[in-house]
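We emphasize that the prediction below concerns an isolated chain of 163 residues; any contacts that depend on oligomerization or on bound cofactors are therefore not represented. The input was used exactly as deposited, without trimming of termini.
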Amino acid sequence: MLDQTYPNLEVTLINDQTPDSSVKIAEDFISKHRLNNWKIYHLEENSGLSVVRNKGIDTAQGKYLFFLDSDDTITPNCIKTLVNIAENTNAEMVISQLECEQLETGEKSICIMIKASETEIKGNDNILKAFSESKLVTYAVNKLFITEYLRNNKLYFVKGLFA
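Result of the prediction step, given as a token string:
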């Protein structure tokens, strides 16, 4: 995240009461690099990924929101590229492909490919159709959202579901 080319990046870490030392590692990292725009929020109990993502929606202060899990990495231009697309198209959501790395071999490949032939899909019916035809995937981690769009439309993750 330190290599992101997008300026004024806000990073929110959600502590879901992990039993390991990752919170201490994150606190030390934030302090060492003087990352004033990085924040850690602590949930009262381990609540699962949906609650963590919803906390991210509720606490985000920026115009855009991008979910990133602890085992994910993104290219340095990822956020900037997605924001530029959103700004140029007035999209509420921008979707990217995902590259996965096999832990055993280190081999990388596109594991989530966008199969839609259109560069823009407009309208709720067309978006729903693209999802139902598996042209788009329902993971949260490969999408940039307008934060207020999620809030205003009460688009939150269902507690107990993972993605």
